[in-house]
C-alpha cells in the first residue's frame, strides 16, 4: 500500500450528499446517473453500481461524495464528482452515515 502525505489527502473535498434521483444510463448495464443534493447545489454523478443496486432503492440515501474532481464525460453524461464505496471482494458497498447529517457537511 502506497502512503501519501496528509497535505495530499487534505486536498480532497469530501462531503455528504443525498441521492435524490437515480436512473440507468441507456446502453450500459453498469452505470447509474445519480442526482445528488449537496445542500447548496445539486450534482450529477455517474456511478458503476447498477449491477448491485436498484436506482429506486437509493433515493433518499446519504453518501460521501468527492466534489472537487475534474468533471468527466461518461456515456454522454458529465459526471461532477465521485461517490465513495467499499470494495467487498469486487462488489461495491455504499457507505452511509450512522445518522442523518446535513447535506453538504464536510467529511474530515
UniProtKB/TrEMBL annotation:
Task of the protein: Is required not only for elongation of protein synthesis but also for the initiation of all mRNA translation through initiator tRNA(fMet) aminoacylation.
One Gene Ontology CC term in the entry: cytoplasm
InterPro entries per record: Met-tRNA-synth_bsu_C (IPR004495), NA-bd_OB-fold (IPR012340), tRNA-bd_dom (IPR002547), Tyrosine-tRNA_ligase_regulator (IPR051270)
Alphabetized GO MF terms: ATP binding; methionine-tRNA ligase activity; tRNA binding
Catalytic activity: tRNA(Met) + L-methionine + ATP = L-methionyl-tRNA(Met) + AMP + diphosphate
Location of the TRNA-binding domain: 8-108
Official protein name in the record: Methionine--tRNA ligase
Biological processes, Gene Ontology terms: methionyl-tRNA aminoacylation
Keyword Lipid metabolism included in the entry's annotation: no
Record NCBIfam families: metG_C_term
Subcellular location: Cytoplasm
EC number: 6.1.1.10
Summary of subunit composition and partner proteins: Homodimer.
Keywords for the protein's UniProt record, in alphabetical order: Aminoacyl-tRNA synthetase, ATP-binding, Cytoplasm, Ligase, Nucleotide-binding, Protein biosynthesis, RNA-binding, tRNA-binding
Amino acid at each position: 500500500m502506497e502512503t501519501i502525505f496528509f497535505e495530499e489527502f487534505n486536498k480532497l473535498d469530501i462531503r455528504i450528499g443525498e441521492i435524490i434521483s437515480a436512473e440507468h444510463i441507456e446502453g450500459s448495464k453498469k452505470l447509474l446517473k445519480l442526482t445528488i443534493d449537496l445542500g447548496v447545489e445539486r450534482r450529477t454523478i455517474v456511478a458503476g453500481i447498477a449491477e448491485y443496486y436498484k436506482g429506486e432503492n437509493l433515493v433518499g440515501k446519504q453518501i460521501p461524495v468527492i466534489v472537487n474532481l475534474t468533471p468527466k464525460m461518461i456515456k454522454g453524461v458529465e459526471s461532477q464528482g465521485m461517490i465513495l464505496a467499499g470494495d467487498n471482494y469486487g462488489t461495491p458497498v455504499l457507505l452511509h452515515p450512522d445518522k442523518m447529517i446535513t447535506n453538504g457537511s464536510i467529511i474530515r
